[in-house]
Amino acid sequence: MVYTGKKQLTALGLAILLGFSLMTSGCATKSTAQSDEALSRAEAAASRAEAAANRAEAAAEKAERIFEKKMKK
User: Fold this and answer.
1) Could you tell me the sign of the dihedral formed by the alpha carbons of 15, 18, 22, 23, in that order?
2) How far is CA 27 from the centre of its chain?
3) Dihedral over alpha carbons 42, 23, 13, 60 (to 10 degrees)
4) Is-contact 64 1, C-beta < 8 A?
């Protein structure tokens, strides 16, 4: 479980870093529309990363339950 937590934090951290880099990569010279688009893409990437981390955590929990069930037999 600790490992999946680390994976989730890593995925979320990477998404935040990606979002920050997209927001700051030349926003001073871009129009507001382009900045808003970059922010939107960063938010979408963060959302996808969070969803993937949640799926990975759910799969790990399911595998752990199956393993514990088999060990009890």
Assistant:
1) positive
2) 23
3) 0
4) yes
Asked if the model's pLDDT at residue 68 lies above 70, the reply is: yes
Kindly state the tokens that stand for 20.
Answer: 């920050």
pTM: 0.52
3-state secondary structure the chain: CHHHHHHHHHHHHHHHHHHHHHHHCCCCCCCHHHHHHHHHHHHHHHHHHHHHHHHHHHHHHHHHHHHHHHHHC
In this predicted model, what pLDDT tens digit does every residue of 8-33 receive, in sequence order? Answer: 556 666 666 766 666 656 555 556 77
